[in-house]
Task: structure prediction
Amino acid sequence: MNNNRKKFLFFVNTGLLFGVLVLLLTYNFLHSSTETNPVSDVTNNRHIFGPGDNKEGYYSIDYTTDTLDLQKRVGKEADLMEFVTNPPLGLPAVPVPEDNPITKEKLLLGRKLFFDRRLSINDTFSCAICHIPEQGFTNNEIQTAIGVEGRSGKRNSPTVYNSAYLEKIFHDGRESTLEQQVWAPLLAKNEMANPSIGFVINKIKAIPDYDGLFESAFDGRGPTMETVGMALADYQRALNSADSPFDRWYFGKQEDAVSEQVKRGFEIFSGKGLCTACHLVHEDYALFTDHELHNTGLGYLASMGTTSKTTRVQLAPGVFVDVDNEIIERVSKPKENDLGRYEVTENPHDRWKFRTPPLRNVALTAPYMHDGSMQTLREVMEFYNQGGIPNEVLSPLIKPLGLTDEEMDDVVAFMESLTGSNVAILVADAFAAPIGDISEDDPNWAHENKIE
Amino acid sequence: MKKMAVSKAKWMQSIATFVCVLFASVIGFQSTAMADETCMSPYMAKIVGQEDYVYVWTLGVEGMGDEQDKLVTISVNPESSTYGKVVNVLSVGGRNEAHHSGLTDDRKYLFAGGLDSNKIFIFDVYSNPAKPKLHKVITDFVEQTGGMVGPHTFYALPGRIMVTALSNNVDHGGRTGMAEYTNEGDFVAAHWNPTDEDLRGAEKVGNVADGYGYDVRALPRRNIIVTSSFTGWSNYMMDFGQMLADPEAMKRFGNTVVVWDLHTRKPKKVFEVPGAPLEIRCAWGSQNNYCFTTTALTSKIWLIYEDDEGEWHAADVADIGDPSKVPLPVDISITADDQGLWVQTFMDGKTRFFDISDPHAPKQTYEHVIGSQVNMISQSWDGKRTYFTSSLLGNWDKTGEADEQYFKLFTWNGKKLAHEFTIDFYELKLGRAHQMRFGAYSLYGQAPNSKDRMLSQVK
Result:
């Protein structure tokens, strides 16, 4: 082969190679999606932590937006099984029911269901509408949940993080397993408002993009009340988050993992602050909950307290007015009372008792308390520092603490050190999940052209 | 403050006006503007003479009648034997949070949206104007647009309908955009609103680029679209009183007006207009290069105007009532001669007339209580007939006895309103009366149908 021919072939081959590369890159560009476009470092993704519609500083007339763009969100699928088999530092082994071992296939099916807005009577509501991934798998933007047709829920959406470990589910602890729990929001009229179990099952069966998924994940079993619950439970059971700066310091013995303020905060948290009486920390792991329910007086205040004559309402950045409550009542439906655990047991001693929430990722899950009535962790500290609200069934564990401002700041700093190292991975994975919105292929009476 | 252009580029405006008229002559059926709503798209065909019907997009109420949303047709021609009566009710299934509707440029179809269900109902209003029929239901608005939620305004462009959205399918917050459909209801394109992360080529004039959406209007001779901003699903579907008392929720209102390039659909400027700017009404006069909007929460009239240099600006030009009392201005309507602006304030049930002969200094000259609550207004082109309805949002309307739901006609002599008739939507078990659009036989070369059915008489 002469040199010219070699050069010719070299250029042809190089050209072909270049062409293939261009084609590959073009294909990748044109077909990029949340599921296939990798993120080199999800921890640098601003979309991960907090609402993209940032309202920090909104109290000021000088408020400046830093709004993130929904079209710029990028997801990255993660191996969530890793967080089941090897839970992050600070968490114990994941309790898995014998009759629902976690598989990747079930977990991915559960994730698909979790983000599917078609699983509501009018195709508008998924689990993720109240448990928004970048908002701590809760909703930072409203105090209490709003369901189908705008119906009011009376409680704040709890986070789904680490729900695998919960022994009592819901703020009143009325449910005991994730498999069973999923059906409550699916059927509640003020949540997803499905009229029956059969309605949900039949709808899933009729949606083409579920064809074969249940059968494949459950050894031939199709969608049933049980398999829907199992799949959704498996996804939630994988959302385990820890290995926080606190964990690296306390359990990992890395002295420099947290600041001195965090260390002081933990000392107060587990000492003078009496917090660990309910938010338990064990020798080799911490869930920050005793799985019990307590009356702090907050629920009592809402039921029995008197209300002021006006409400301070923000109209725009830096613009506030005090509105007569009489005016507000004219555009309000009566507020539903909330007696907490009593609504489950009808035991008068259980009035206004609510579940001790786990505290991991608590910096991401504002607003706080069972009714979302507190916007900051500092407000929560001040509430407990004053000893809650006295009432005849106040928990004996709640008492004035006598903490200084500095000590309360220290405890807040400690709580802010509880954000898990894998939050970015879990949220980016959630972004990679398809959002199920109704298409023309899905069941709906309007697709059957029966209207006259 | 720079004054708007009154003489600059007149030849361009003349050409633009000529093109618009020519276009309307080609695609429209009647170009004689004698009587028509004043807030419609300039691309839309005009009604000749008296309107025959008002179509009221009505919210179903749980526990009342058939409980679902419906298009209610009301006969409003004094020459008709059915004058002042409901002549047709078309139930569409579900409580979709019926809100706004809009006609195609040829006025053959009425698009009506559900802010909750995201369904868009397309009614054929030309085959029989007395009895609209459901032509098509778009169920996949969210999927087609890539995640927009809450189809709101339906605004006629040539052969197209521009649909603004209020929310999104990710967090039910306010970041959203607008979408284009053909008159047949086929999806064309989605245009997301500018945000800080992606201004899409726009200039952020103030401190805010929130990406929120609400209304849209075009000023074709200046090649612009103007959009405003309200709030996301979580707020507009929430109990009103509950929301007012929720400090987190009250942070989630729009504070922007965006001026877009009409032809390229690209945003040009993002203005800071605090307190939820809602309806946009652009002037009709060929030299009047401005639009008005009002802010629901801060109770102000804002002027969006072009200066002598061809630059667009936004200015707060008047208070509406006492802003500290939050009267909540809602729908507005500009008169055909650009001299007056009707402003409804929901909380006190008043309509207020502003003299806008100097658009930089509107002055309220008249007010009248329409009901315990009031929202929408539609006026005839000659301004002599003003129609009012009552509902704001399903969970924002007043409660108890103050929850009056009505359709009312008043005549206007330039000085005061005179009541003509009222239809009680609760007495007829219809629901909450929201947006109105006019219909007429003359648009389609038809004669009035003498066999109109009077529902209220049947009842």
